[in-house]
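Example record for the data management plan.
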Amino acid sequence: MAAMASLQQALSSLSINGSSQKFHVCGLSSSSLMGVRVSMPRSFPEVSDGQRRGIITMVVRRWERKKCKPNSLPVWEKLHVKVGDTIKVIAGSDKGKISEITRVYRHNSKVLVKDVNLKTKHMKGKQEGESGQIVQIEAPIHSSNVMLYSKKEKVASRVGHKVLEDGRKVRYLLKTGEILDSPEDWKRIHKDRKKE
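Corresponding structural encoding:
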């Protein structure tokens, strides 16, 4: 309630200077109101009592809430890459590196790539007398910063989807036509996961 009252007070003490088209709130001259940029119209309509009145339009967007399901869980995004895909990093400090995806985070569209975006972490000693250590770990990067890569043709490409004659829906590279989702690849990925 107090915040609403202070906002109403600030808006009531708002006076518009017609020549410079800036406004003054509590004696401060600026083009923003409470830290938010305000766009002012070019001309102000005349009112019967001779005063000019302005219409203030502003978009308040301090933070954006993530889209959620009715049970408050985050909405999962569709990604163009899967675990085990060979990719090329197209943006960031590791631009140009070719590696493999080890994990996918669908709630925030990020991927974990082997030996890419390495961060230094200072680890404490777990047991008494054990000294700490400095470890390099992989941090997630956004999925828009990676592109699928063909090892045969040595080229990065966008992904396409098509249905084969046997009815399977598969992903393929648009530049080369190479099919990505083969049953052998999935068997290899599941075998690697069981080993871990």
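Summary line stored alongside the record: Confidence is low (pLDDT under 50) at residues 15-30.
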